[in-house]
Structure formats: structure tokens, C-alpha cells
């Protein structure tokens, strides 16, 4: 019998194994295997190896499930879909910075029900199951509440294409003077977990893909945050926004008139 706990447990086991493999095999200077949307959007051999390991483990236990992975695309069409980012924060992985993560979410009939973000270099595994809370090392997570926009520490990220970055910089120029400060850690999955853990107050980004925010988004919402897009829409690559209710709306209302979903 499938329970949310079973999915969360399996996702955690697999994310931990992938993290151990990555730590063991990461050379001092990982090599770039290929580039994607721009010359700075890189893939290493270990992104591929991590996704292969994750896919193999899922298939061994649940051969009928669908899988969407950043590197391998979409396979299968079961009502259960695993959404996998084998390394979120590949540039950090390349440079040896500590914010990169293995992110695995489980979606059933279109709803994310379990999420695990293993921020490997930090030894932190964030887990969440729908309706059952978000957790880190046995501690239940709660996002910060009651923080006004002008006191909020806001995480964000940037895309890889020049045209997108031009607009992101323009939007940021409006946001920065109106908040406590900005953080750019380099992993959307880790950023969302930081919202959950109260390490930042909010997060917004134009461009993250579902594998970047599916697991971390559940961790954040199970910690009490609101996750969405503009004008009542769902979180999406157009814009993903996350913060406690109250701050979410303030941040939304600051961003919306700036038309942050455009590219130059
Ligand atoms: C990256 C993110 C990062 C974001 C980048 C990119 P990748 O994922 O998580 O925070 O700003 O646009 O999507 O490419 O390392 O898996």
C-alpha cells in the first residue's frame, strides 16, 4: 500500500545514496561535459551519473512510475511521477561551493506529495510529505512569519541567458532598495529549504524549472510558506515566488508591476 511516508522514505534513501556517490566521486575540479542554454549553463559527468543512479533505484522498486529528470527528460506515463534534479546548483558543484543539492519530488495525479532536498556538502537532508510537515534532522521546520518587506532577507537566482539576465538585473534594481538584503546562493532547491528553515524570509526567481522547485517547494509550504506565481497562478518557470503569507503578497505586489516574466 502506497503512503506518503513510503514515498518520502524511498526518495530520501535514494537522495542520500546519490549524495554519497557524488561526494565520493567529485574530483577537485569536475570537468564540464556539455553546455545547455548558454555557454555558462553546464553539465558535468556526475550530473548524468547521479541521474542514472536515481533512475535505476526508482525503476528497481517502482518500474511502472514516470520519471522527469533534468538531464534525461521524461520517461513513462504512470500516475506517480518522480521529478528529479540530480545536482541543483551545478555551478557551485563545479567550483566547490557548498550550495548544491540532490532534489527528488514525488507527484501523484499531478500533486506533489513528497519532497527531499539533500544539500550534500552541508550534510543536510530536508524532507517533507504533504500534510505531514517539513523536517531537517528530526526538527520540524517553520518559516519566518510577520516579517515586513523592508526587513525581509530575500533569496533569488538568475538564468543563464543574457537576455533574461538583463531583465533580472532591472527587476533586482527595484527590489534591492526595498528589502533588508538579497542572497544568491546558487541552488533554487536549497533556497526554498532556506525559506522553510527561516534562513531567509522569501525567495523569487524567473526561470526555475519544475525539477528545481518541486521538492523544495513542498518543504517550504509544509513549513508554512506560500508558494506561487503572479496573480494567483501556480509556481512555474515564468516566476516562482515563496514566503510566509503576508510577505508573499508584499513581494508579489512589488514584483508584479515590474513585469518580471519577460526576457530582453
Ligand atoms: C540552477 C538553480 C539556480 C538558478 C539557475 C539554475 P542548475 O539550477 O537552481 O539557483 O538560479 O537558474 O536553474 O542548473 O544548477 O540545476
TrEMBL record:
The keyword Magnesium applies. InterPro entries: IMPase, Inositol_monoP_metal-BS, Inositol_monophosphatase-like, Inositol_monophosphatase_CS. GO terms for biological process: inositol metabolic process; phosphatidylinositol phosphate biosynthetic process; signal transduction. Gene3D superfamilies: 3.40.190.80, Fructose-1,6-Bisphosphatase, subunit A, domain 1 (3.30.540.10). The keyword Mitochondrion does not apply. It catalyses: L-histidinol phosphate + H2O = L-histidinol + phosphate; a myo-inositol phosphate + H2O = myo-inositol + phosphate. Its cofactor is Mg(2+). Its EC number is 3.1.3.25. One of its GO terms (molecular function) is inositol monophosphate 1-phosphatase activity. Keywords: Hydrolase, Magnesium, Metal-binding. Pathway: Amino-acid biosynthesis; L-histidine biosynthesis; L-histidine from 5-phospho-alpha-D-ribose 1-diphosphate: step 8/9. PROSITE patterns: IMP_1, IMP_2. SUPFAM superfamilies: Carbohydrate phosphatase. Mg(2+) binds at residues 70, 85, 87-88, 212. Pfam families: Inositol_P. Catalyzes the dephosphorylation of histidinol-phosphate to histidinol, the direct precursor of histidine. Belongs to the inositol monophosphatase superfamily. PANTHER family: INOSITOL MONOPHOSPHATASE, INOSITOL-1-MONOPHOSPHATASE-RELATED. This is Inositol-1-monophosphatase.
Amino acid at each position: 500500500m502506497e503512503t506518503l511516508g513510503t514515498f518520502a522514505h524511498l526518495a530520501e534513501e535514494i537522495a542520500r545514496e546519490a549524495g554519497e556517490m557524488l561526494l565520493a566521486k567529485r574530483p577537485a575540479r569536475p570537468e564540464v561535459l556539455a553546455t545547455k542554454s548558454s555557454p555558462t549553463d553546464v553539465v558535468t559527468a556526475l550530473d548524468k551519473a547521479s541521474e542514472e543512479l536515481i533512475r535505476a533505484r526508482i525503476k528497481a522498486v517502482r518500474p511502472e512510475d514516470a520519471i522527469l529528470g533534468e538531464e534525461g527528460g521524461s520517461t513513462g506515463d504512470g500516475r506517480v511521477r518522480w521529478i528529479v534534479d540530480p545536482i541543483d546548483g551545478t555551478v557551485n558543484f563545479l567550483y566547490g561551493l557548498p550550495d548544491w543539492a540532490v532534489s527528488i519530488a514525488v507527484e501523484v495525479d499531478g500533486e506533489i506529495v513528497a519532497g527531499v532536498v539533500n544539500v550534500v556538502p552541508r550534510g543536510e537532508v530536508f524532507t517533507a510529505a504533504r500534510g505531514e510537515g517539513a523536517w531537517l534532522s528530526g526538527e520540524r521546520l517553520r518559516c519566518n512569519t510577520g516579517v515586513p518587506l523592508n526587513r525581509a532577507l530575500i533569496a533569488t537566482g538568475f538564468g543563464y541567458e543574457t537576455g533574461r539576465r538583463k531583465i533580472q538585473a532591472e527587476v533586482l534594481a527595484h527590489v534591492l532598495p526595498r528589502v533588508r538584503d538579497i542572497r544568491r546562493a546558487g541552488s533554487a532547491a536549497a533556497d526554498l529549504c532556506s525559506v522553510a528553515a527561516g534562513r531567509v524570509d522569501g525567495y523569487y526567481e524567473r526561470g526555475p524549472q519544475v525539477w528545481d522547485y518541486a521538492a523544495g517547494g513542498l518543504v517550504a509550504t509544509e513549513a508554512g510558506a506560500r508558494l506561487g506565481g503572479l496573480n494567483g497562478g501556480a509556481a512555474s518557470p515564468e516566476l516562482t515566488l515563496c514566503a510566509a503569507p503576508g510577505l508573499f503578497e508584499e513581494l508579489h505586489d512589488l514584483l508584479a508591476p515590474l513585469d518580471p516574466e519577460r526576457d530582453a
